[in-house]
């Protein structure tokens, strides 16, 4: 871990060496940032919430920010999805997966029987509710800005008796562990994304993901089906689709979408064209390599050559007689 990964009050003069993350040190978000090769040895800025992290990027205080976007148990992180929908000029440039489990910690001298109130980040709390209901059925919950902050608050006047925290919390605070592996699902994973103002798009790898946000044009039967058909008719699989209220009226929603493939893939590009014609507002959040590196599988009917050949054929229909076709595909169409 870089020496400068602890919370910093004063930023260095070279902003292109700063990465923001949800702190304090020891969070899962910091663990995700450790997976970024470009961030190694750079300055890491600890922030209190997603809004502050993205504000750093927009203001130029940071070159990028790591934020949680989805959890395998709780689904999408709504605060992050809403921020990406409303803060202009942001791009996702990478995604990272972090296995997630939790411990219950307390001040020295505290026993499980003493625990009446638990401090925890709301997402972590939701992932541990089965254990908590079984072992602390009458407990109360105090929300925290992060799981590490929850543990730190035990020594800062918090009325909580215990906190939900990452297993490595004992390396950062003098707490006692009351219980381990309290997460409801031992296979839980949180997906993080690195967000930047960089408008460049990484080259396709064959194992890519494209993230978008799109609004429905109106509230009518079949409107969502029309949106989904922009992808299904091009053979593009959606690995995530979640609705979020726009907020200006009842029944008005935007959809957060992850599509398998890259914007430079013909099938994905054509789907985006169809989506833009259909939706009044489309936000392109980026195309980037998948964290799991799994190659995207699709029907060969939607390979790139099929789309380019179709465009060449269409161009050949109105080409002057005797004109040299632009491509071999066009020549075949004329022949």
From TrEMBL:
<feature type="domain" description="ACT">
    <location>
        <begin position="212"/>
        <end position="290"/>
    </location>
</feature>
<dbReference type="Pfam" id="PF00800">
    <property type="entry name" value="PDT"/>
</dbReference>
<dbReference type="GO" id="GO:0004664">
    <property type="term" value="F:prephenate dehydratase activity"/>
</dbReference>
<dbReference type="InterPro" id="IPR002912">
    <property type="entry name" value="ACT_dom"/>
</dbReference>
<keyword id="KW-0456">Lyase</keyword>
<dbReference type="Pfam" id="PF01842">
    <property type="entry name" value="ACT"/>
</dbReference>
<keyword id="KW-0057">Aromatic amino acid biosynthesis</keyword>
<dbReference type="GO" id="GO:0009094">
    <property type="term" value="P:L-phenylalanine biosynthetic process"/>
</dbReference>
<protein>
    <recommendedName>
        <fullName>Prephenate dehydratase</fullName>
        <ecNumber>4.2.1.51</ecNumber>
    </recommendedName>
</protein>
<keyword id="KW-0028">Amino-acid biosynthesis</keyword>
<feature type="site" description="Essential for prephenate dehydratase activity">
    <location>
        <position position="190"/>
    </location>
</feature>
<dbReference type="InterPro" id="IPR045865">
    <property type="entry name" value="ACT-like_dom_sf"/>
</dbReference>
<dbReference type="GO" id="GO:0005737">
    <property type="term" value="C:cytoplasm"/>
</dbReference>
<feature type="domain" description="Prephenate dehydratase">
    <location>
        <begin position="18"/>
        <end position="197"/>
    </location>
</feature>
<keyword id="KW-0584">Phenylalanine biosynthesis</keyword>
<comment type="pathway">
    <text>Amino-acid biosynthesis; L-phenylalanine biosynthesis; phenylpyruvate from prephenate: step 1/1.</text>
</comment>
<dbReference type="InterPro" id="IPR008242">
    <property type="entry name" value="Chor_mutase/pphenate_deHydtase"/>
</dbReference>
<dbReference type="InterPro" id="IPR001086">
    <property type="entry name" value="Preph_deHydtase"/>
</dbReference>
């Amino acid at each position: 871990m870089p020496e400068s990964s602890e919370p910093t009050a004063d930023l260095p003069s070279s902003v292109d060496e700063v990465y923001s993350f949800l702190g304090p040190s020891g969070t899962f978000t910091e663990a995700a940032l450790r997976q970024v090769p470009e961030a190694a040895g750079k300055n890491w800025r600890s922030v209190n919430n997603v809004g502050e992290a993205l504000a750093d990027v927009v203001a130029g205080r940071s070159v990028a920010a790591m934020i949680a976007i989805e959890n395998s148990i709780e689904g999408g992180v709504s605060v992050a999805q809403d921020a990406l929908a409303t803060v202009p000029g942001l791009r996702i440039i990478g995604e990272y997966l972090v296995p997630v489990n939790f411990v219950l910690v307390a001040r020295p001298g505290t026993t499980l029987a003493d625990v009446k109130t638990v401090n925890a980040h709301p997402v972590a709390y939701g992932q541990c509710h089965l254990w908590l209901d079984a072992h602390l059925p009458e407990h109360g919950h105090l929300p925290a800005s992060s799981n590490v902050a929850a543990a730190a608050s035990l020594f800062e006047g918090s009325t909580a008796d215990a906190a939900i925290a990452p297993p490595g919390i004992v390396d950062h605070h003098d707490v006692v562990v009351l219980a381990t592996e309290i997460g409801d699902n031992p296979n839980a994973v949180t997906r993080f994304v690195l967000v930047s103002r960089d408008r460049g798009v990484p080259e396709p790898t064959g194992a890519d993901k494209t993230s978008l946000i799109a609004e429905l044009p109106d509230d009518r039967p079949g409107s969502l089906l029309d949106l989904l058909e922009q992808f299904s008719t091009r053979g593009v699989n959606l690995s995530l689709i979640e609705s979020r209220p726009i907020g200006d009226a009842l029944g008005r929603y935007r959809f957060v979408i992850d599509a398998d493939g890259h914007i430079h893939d013909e099938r994905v590009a054509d789907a985006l064209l169809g989506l833009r014609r259909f939706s009044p507002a489309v936000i392109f959040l980026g195309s980037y390599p998948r964290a799991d590196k799994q190659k995207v599988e699709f029907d060969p009917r939607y390979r790139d050559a099929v789309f380019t050949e179709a465009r060449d054929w269409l161009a050949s229909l109105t080409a002057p007689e005797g004109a040299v076709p632009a491509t071999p595909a066009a020549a075949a169409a004329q022949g």
